[in-house]
Each structure stands twice: as C-alpha cells, then as structure tokens.
Amino acid sequence: MDEWLRIDERKTEIVVKIIGCRNAESFKNQQRENMRYRKKFTDSFRVWLELVKRPEHQGAISAIADEYERKKLCHRRYRGKDAGARCYCA
Q1: How far is CA 73 from the centre of its chain?
Q2: 67 Cβ partners below 8 Å, 6+ apart?
Q3: What share of the chain in percent tops pLDDT 70?
Q4: Tens-place pLDDT, residues 27-62
Q5: CA–CA dist 23, 88 (Å, integer)
Q6: Contact 47, 38 (CB under 8 A)
Q7: Domain spans of the chain?
Q8: Which residues, other chains included, contact 88 with Cβ-Cβ below 8 Å and sequence gap of 6+?
Q9: Mean pLDDT throughout 6-25?
C-alpha cells in the first residue's frame, strides 16, 4: 500500500499540471485518507482489489470524496459517471 501511495502521488503531480490545478496537496491528502481507510483492512494491494468490490468499502471511499466536494477542495472521484479530477482553484 505504501508503494501504491508513492506512485499515486507522482501521478497526482502529472494530473494537476494537465488540468491546471494549483493544489496538488489536496489531491494527495485525499489519497492519504483513502489509504488510511484501506490499511484498516489490509496492507496488500491485491487483497484490497477484492475488498473494494464490497459496497461498504466503495461507499466509504466515496464519502471521503463527498467531504472534499462539500468543502470545495480539489479531489478525485474514482467510480461511476462522475469519475475524474475536480479542481476548484484553476
């Protein structure tokens, strides 16, 4: 999971440059919160891919994104028709 987070943080730097966002830390903080949640259940990326299929886990990760959206903090949506980056500063 820690390696996943490091890779995701590098990807975040690319995404924010592409969309013109000035708040990479918000994206990174969201992912750190997601990781803290995931680590409550497993340290294995492979195991998490099975766990995330459960509605309660999908809902918990979506709730983190909902909170960022409510506060108008730059963030990502991971699933469904609303998937993608959200920037409030560009």
Answers
A1: 12
A2: none
A3: 99
A4: 999 999 999 999 999 999 899 999 999 989 989 999
A5: 9
A6: no
A7: 2-86
A8: 23, 72, 73, 74
A9: 92
Residue recorded with tokens 């195991």? 47
Place of tokens 């560009």: 90
Lowest mean pLDDT among 2-6, 21-25, 43-47, 64-68: 2-6
SS3 content of the chain, % helix, strand, coil (to 5): 65, 5, 30
> Residue ranges of the alpha helices (H) in the chain?
2-19, 24-39, 45-51, 55-70
Q: What is the pLDDT of residue 78?
A: 81
Q: Which residue has the tokens 């994206």?
A: 27
Q: Which amino acid is at 15?
A: V
Residues listed for the chain = 90
Q: In the beta sheet, which residues pair with residue 75?
A: 86
Residue at 5: amino acid letter: L
